[in-house]
Design a protein that fits this description.
The chain is an alpha+beta fold and 1120 residues long. The chain is 44% helix and 13% strand. The strands form 7 sheets. Strands 1-21-20-19-18 form a 5-stranded mixed beta sheet. The longest helix has 46 residues. The radius of gyration is 40 Å and the shape is globular.
């Protein structure tokens, strides 16, 4: 075993807070890129000196650096850089000249279908440059032949490593390694014969390298000129970084006895990248080979070599504070400084309460709306220097806050965890008027997470890696999963839920239902434990989750969004309170209650007891209203008051059930089981389900009375028969305890009944039964869904919706979005929809110029179209149709991503295929009309426009105008013999009627079919007539019109019958005259015989069947 010491180091002093991203060896030195978007060429023999050359602004947010081709025997001369600006630049660091540049869109070949997630690795074959290797977080390593354009044919080989790829490369012409983010390492062999039927060589799996090598992480594996390779591994706890040879003997094996240790190796930070400068082997004889390990930590300006690392394309930040270190006594641990700082901060908060951005009072509200209507002229000056901004912010802090920050930074220098956490929270949330600096917050959270594995800090680091919020760090889903996993292991429930959702949907890792169930079950166990820790019957709370877009009628507005149109449209009558505001409803109910309406009084009690959005639970008011109703029916001693008020008994017993529940649970009153029992018994006499459940619970748990399971079961059954979900859950649990197959089946049925009302315990019991396969076949997907519902129901325990809603209502949209983003990362669909909606720029097509706006400019945090698309996508995957349509819009217009018309059409098709989104149908019609992404077809466009109108009647105006334009274009296309398929009128099918059907339809009464007149009596309330009278007069007009039409039809039929009868008699008389003339020419005997015949009988108006004239009559040929 050997050890190497650091002999020199390079530091970037200006600009401050600059981070080194990557280094590569060149023939002329060492190239490095940094967070100031600069490329520097360093002399490895004099690292501490000035760079040989520097190139500024090589890219906007540069992220990648590669050496290009060995043009000399000593190595590469040129480098290639890439950044988030979509440019790939070829540079000569010796002369600072740009050799060439390629922008996104200037493509020779592209492969876009082989990976389903972020690509994390690209490497070319060492001797066949046309062979390209790619690795991705979807767990696949693909090998392509780049000389082939077609992606399916170019794909030479696919390797399924089974976990998110961290690094992958060729170690020889045929050997390929793959290293996942969970440190699992495997060797694969390149397929030489790609013909089908040829079996691929078996891979060699080394498993988790942390266990195999006794280290804590793996940095990378580098190919060496001698045919072997070197793996770099590190250990946090020992602050070490080691190099181990990995040789192909064969087989490939590790030479643990020849380990090389780098002393001091960047402290406790993760070393992510290292390289060898073989060209200096002769010159540097003492160290044999100079090894340079880099980190993404802040470069300190001291004279001692300090190396640290963090594995991310963006810089993580070192634990050291940017403020000058203060001399601190060795005995101190920072507790005194933290206590003093908290004293200053709490006193400042008490004396300076945080002002609300929401206007108060009539004048404040009026002024707010007036100012909103006035256009604003925004002019931006040149950006300030970063260092100046930090100094300015520090000086602008109020005196007590600035002193508190100074004390906390002093304590943080000696790694006091409380000080570090407080500084991180202040920088992240902007507490105590401190400015929000997400980069500094990330640095502090990362410092604390590295210090003692603080799960809250690990959760925040994972969150920042997942979202890249504020530009603190580049999004890295694999790292986000890693930190959330550590936090979950440390007991952080929100990280546990985040990890479960990522495995459930495959974010940054391959989808794994069993792992998702394992994590969701842990969260559900904690949620149900919290629920049952409440008063008898479980916790009660008001749900805080809702979609912001619903306040505006949906993502596209009222009537245009799927959530507010078609079958989801509010079809309430004009005199309904469906459109009323909560304050108006409360005011109306209070007025009716004062007039003696006991139903309104009970409704007020329920509203205050249950609470709802915008109205917190008020137990005192609820008790007052319930008691007011109860006193109308019972006297103090329980005797019933005689009353002629219809329905009072039913409402009073319900009020009694609520009063009993409040006394049993101690809600707004002192807990008193005797009073609870009294009220429950009053309610039970009239069959109130809530009272029956309450008495059942008291008997089951022995609350103030002896336990009696039999009585409890009877009460639960009575309440369950009235579809009372808490009783159904309790009864199901009793049956489940019996354990027999029949009892389990009954329990399962009760749980399913209660689940219709989203009861949290019903979801939990069903999840447990399905996960364990009790009473039914095991279904991993269904178990995960139920566990997820349990977790998401416990909003006060697990979600940040309450804080997000408060911040949004107060006008702090930046903080609101962050809090919604926490919920979104945990898998809440409403959180995902809210984040996407707040980030969405397309709220209006008629937007004013940015410099002349009626609203304040959006903060930079809310300007991230790529992140919006991510959350639209996640929301759409959870069956949000409007989000799915939004996805199509983003792909159609290239917002936050490259334009992809096929994906846009797929999104629109999926949105309208089953759920019939009118907006999606309209968009598909537009695409067909204009040939954008779909075949230009005017006939198909018309069909989609028609379907959009059928789906949503409110689309009449846009559809009508679009159809008018479409018909003009179609007519011109037909006139000019264009190649586009024009609109073709579809012939109406004609039914061939039989004789009996013709007569039946002719005689049928048409007035029975009111649907033809466009009336729908479902829109009319059954017991609530239109204003102005008890009868609305709608059906009388229809009946009168039907009678008039019937009389006219019967009159016409009578005239037709008379005409037919007259014509037939006329023809009959004519035939008789002809027969008489012929009879005079025959002999006398024939004439006498003919005279003796009886007169011809009357055959009626119509010929009878069998008559020769019947066929002619049927064909319409009456007469000749």
């Amino acid at each position: 075993m050997y050890a190497l010491n650091a002999v020199d180091s390079f530091h970037i002093s200006e600009p401050k807070d600059t981070y080194v991203y990557d280094i590569v060896p060149l023939a002329v030195g060492l190239a490095a890129i940094s967070s100031d978007d600069s490329l520097r060429l360093l002399d490895p023999l004099t690292l501490s000196g000035a760079p040989i050359n520097s190139i500024r602004r090589v890219n906007t947010v540069v992220t990648c650096l590669k050496a290009i081709n060995n043009t000399t025997e000593r190595g590469a001369l040129l480098v290639c850089t890439a950044g988030r600006d979509g440019r790939v630049c070829l540079l000569d660091p010796r002369t600072a000249a740009k050799i060439g540049e390629v922008r996104t869109g200037e493509l020779l070949v592209q492969y876009i279908e082989s990976h389903s997630d972020d690509v994390t690795e690209l490497q070319f074959h060492p001797s066949r440059p046309q062979i390209l290797l790619s690795g991705s977080t979807d767990g696949l390593v693909n090998i392509y032949n780049t000389t082939i354009m077609d992606e399916e044919e170019a794909l030479h080989q696919t390797i399924n490593h089974g976990a998110s790829i961290h690094h992958s490369n060729f170690l020889s012409d045929v050997d390929i390694f793959a290293l996942s983010h969970d440190e699992k390492f495997s060797m694969y062999e390149l397929v030489r014969n790609p013909e089908e039927g040829v079996e691929e060589p078996a891979p060699t799996h080394f498993g988790d390298m942390r266990e195999k090598l006794g280290e804590e992480y793996v940095a990378n594996v580098l190919r060496r000129p001698d045919g072997g390779s070197v793996i770099g591994v590190g250990t946090h706890s020992r602050e070490s970084f080691d190099l181990i040879q990995f040789n192909n003997n064969p087989p490939w094996s590790f030479a643990l006895d020849a380990k090389v240790s780098l002393r001091g190796a960047h402290g406790s930070e993760i070393v992510r990248s290292f390289c060898f400068l073989d060209s200096l082997m002769v010159i540097m004889k003492v160290s044999l080979q100079i090894l340079l390990a880099i980190s993404y930590a802040k470069i300190q300006g001291d004279t001692e070599a300090t190396f640290s690392a963090e594995g991310s394309p963006k810089p993580s930040i070192a634990a050291q504070s940017p403020t000058p270190e203060q001399p601190i006594r060795e005995q101190e641990d920072g507790t005194e400084q933290v206590d003093k700082a908290l004293f200053f901060l709490r006193r400042y908060e008490r004396l300076n309460p945080r002002p609300s951005r929401k206007p108060s009072g009539i004048l404040g509200t009026a002024g707010h709306y007036v100012s909103a209507l006035l256009p604003r002229l925004y002019i931006q000056g040149p950006p300030e220097e970063a260092s100046g901004i930090e100094a300015k912010e520090h000086k602008q802090l109020p005196g007590p806050v600035a002193e508190a920050v100074r004390l906390l930074e002093e304590a943080a220098q000696i790694n006091n965890p409380d000080a570090i956490f407080l500084l991180a929270e202040m920088n992240f949330y902007g507490n105590y008027t401190h400015p929000r600096r997400y980069s500094e917050a990330f640095r502090r959270y990362h410092q604390l997470a590295s210090l003692d594995g603080n799960s809250s800090a690990q959760h925040m680091v994972g969150f920042l890696y997942a979202t890249g919020i504020g530009g603190a760090v580049e999004r890295d889903q694999a790292k986000a999963l890693l930190y959330h996993t550590f936090a979950a292991e440390g007991g952080n429930t929100r990280s546990e839920m985040t990890v479960a959702f990522r495995y459930h949907t495959g974010i940054g890792v391959a989808r794994n239902c069993d792992v998702a169930v394992k994590h969701y079950k842990k969260v559900a166990d904690r949620a149900i434990e919290w629920f049952r820790s409440g008063p008898p019957g479980g916790m009660a709370w008001v749900s805080d989750s809702y979609r912001l877009a619903d306040d505006d009628g949906g993502v596209y507005g009222e009537g245009a969004s799927y959530s507010s149109s078609g079958q989801n449209a509010n079809k309430a009558s004009p005199n309904s309170d469906a459109h009323a505001a909560l304050d108006d409803v409360l005011e109306y109910l209070d007025l009716m209650s004062r007039k003696g309406d006991f139903k309104a009084t009970f409704s007020l009690g329920r509203i205050h007891y249950d609470g709802q959005r915008g109205l917190a639970r008020n137990m005192k008011s609820a008790k007052w209203y319930f008691m007011k109703v109860a006193k109308l029916y019972w006297q103090r001693e329980g005797r019933i008051v005689e009353s002629d008020k219809a329905g009072l008994e039913k409402v009073a017993t319900k009020a009694a059930g609520y009063l009993g529940r409040m006394f049993m649970r101690g809600e707004g009153v002192e807990q008193n089981f005797d009073k609870a029992r009294t009220w429950f018994e009053r309610g039970v006499k009239s069959g109130d389900a809530g009272s029956q459940y309450g008495l059942g619970l008291m008997n089951l748990e022995g609350l103030g009375i002896p336990k009696n399971t039999i009585k409890a079961t009877e009460y639960f059954k009575a309440a369950a028969e009235q579809d009372y979900s808490p009783a159904q859950v309790a009864l199901g649990a009793l049956y489940l305890d019996q354990g027999t197959p029949s009892d389990i089946s009954v329990a399962n049925r009760y749980f399913e009944l209660a689940a219709r009302y989203s009861h949290i315990e019903a979801f939990y019991f069903l999840a447990e039964l399905i996960d364990q396969g009790i009473g039914r076949d095991r279904s991993c997907g269904l178990a995960a869904a139920y566990y997820k519902n349990v977790a998401e129901k416990a909003e006060p325990l697990l979600s940040s919706f309450a804080e997000a809603n408060q911040a949004y209502e107060e006008g702090d949209h930046e903080l609101a979005m962050v809090d919604y983003m926490f919920a979104a990362e945990q898998g809440y669909e409403k959180g995902q929809a809210n984040v996407a909606y707040m980030l969405d720029k397309q709220k209006s097509r008629l937007a004013l110029p940015s410099w002349l706006s009626f609203s304040s400019p959006r903060p930079p945090l809310l300007q991230n179209a790529a992140l919006a698309l991510i959350y639209w996508t996640r929301s759409a995957k959870q069956s949000n149709i409007d989000s799915l349509v939004k996805m199509g819009d983003y792909y159609l217009e290239g917002i936050g991503t490259q334009m992809d018309l096929d994906k846009a059409a797929s999104c629109y098709t999926a949105a309208c295929e089953y759920h019939q989104s009118a907006q999606a149908l309209y968009n598909l019609a537009w695409m067909h009309e204009n040939g954008v992404g779909l075949t230009q077809d005017f006939h198909l466009a018309k069909r989609y426009y028609d379907l959009a109108l059928e789906t949503n009647e409110e689309a009449y105006l846009p559809v009508t105008l679009s159809l008018l334009k479409l018909r003009l274009r179609s007519a011109w296309n037909t006139l000019t013999h264009g190649r586009i398929n024009s609109i073709q009128d579809e012939p109406a099918p004609k039914k061939q009627w039989s004789m009996s059907e013709w007569i039946s339809n002719f005689l049928r009464d048409d007035h029975l079919y009111y649907g033809d007149n466009g009336y729908d009596d479902n829109y009319l309330p059954e017991t609530d007539p239109m204003p102005g009278g008890d009868v609305d007069g709608l059906y009388e007009d229809i009946i009168d019109d039907g009678i008039l039409e019937s009389i006219i039809i019967l009159g016409l039929a009578a005239v037709l019958v008379v005409l037919i009868y007259y014509r037939q008699q006329h023809q009959l008389a004519h035939r008789r005259g002809e027969e008489a003339a012929r009879g005079q020419q025959v002999d006398q005997a024939a004439q006498d015989g003919q005279r003796q015949q009886p007169p011809q009988e009357d055959r009626g108006v119509f010929p009878q069947p069998g008559d020769p004239e019947f066929g002619q009559w049927v064909a319409g040929g009456v007469g000749h």
